[in-house]
Amino acid sequence: MLTILAAVAAWEREIMLERQREGIAKAKADGRYKGRAPTARRQADTVRELWNQGMSPTAIAAQGWRSVIDSARLGAPCDVDRDQVSSPARP
Question: Considering the entire predicted model, what is its pTM?
Answer without folding.
Answer: 0.41
